[in-house]
Amino acid sequence: DTVLEVGPGLGVMTGRLGQTGAQIVAVETDAKLAELLRRRLPQNVQVAEADIMQFNLNDLPADYKVVANVPYYITSPIIRLLMESANPPITSVLLIQKEVAERIAAQPGNMSILALSVQYYADVELVAEVARDKFYPIPNVDSTVIKIVRKSQPAFAADTQKLFRLIKAGFGEKRKQLRNSLSGGLQITTEQAARLINRAGLQDTARAQELSLDQWKSLYDQALAEGY
Fold first, then answer.
1. Which pTM was predicted?
2. Residue 167 to residue 37: CA distance in whole angstroms
3. By the 8 A CB rule, do 14 and 72 touch?
4. Which of 219, 202, 154, 217 is CA-nearest to residue 228?
5. CA angle 92, 127, 13 (to 5 degrees)
6. Quick one: pLDDT at residue 195?
7. Is 37 exposed, middle or buried (0-12, 13-18, 19+ CB in 10 A)?
8. Distance CA 53, CA 71 (A)
9. Bridge pairing between strands 45-49 and 91-97
10. Where are the beta strands (DSSP E) in the chain?
């Protein structure tokens, strides 16, 4: 395996990963930490001094894996980067903020753009909770280990730019009924939005957070047919 680790820090987990014999690529933005890691880790660990958001994932072999204790403040951008890359990982095991993990694994009723952007590409499993007192210094939040396994193909065929434009429009006015959100987000009348929702087989009173991926597919197909 080739394993990408994001933000290895002092290399505690990096060293354990290196002991497996896998090829480890540890991406560390701090120059001093990167140099420290290079001096003390085995040869099967490559330390790349870079910002993960600028790192070229295409340089990694296909079906690489990700193991990381992700910096909480850029969790969502990192996950979106991995999922939407031309060379996405086959499996990602991440330690992230508990609330964000629960959002990613949400079911219809509590869906979000983040949940849909991950679940469109992958299956999600909440593996274990990690209490805040396991860290030093102690953070203000609990954590969760989440496992994201890429599907053999996305949930359904779509032009992803158009699909996520539609999804973002649906979530544009939080907690409002879908017809109002779509009206504003797609710049169409509420009557046009209501007709779109009806023809997609959805309830008139539907809200974005209530829809499953299958229902978004129906809405996407109908929006495409109507030129939205």
1. 0.92
2. 42
3. no
4. 219
5. 55
6. 96
7. buried
8. 12
9. unpaired
10. 2-6, 23-28, 45-49, 65-69, 91-97, 122-130, 143-150
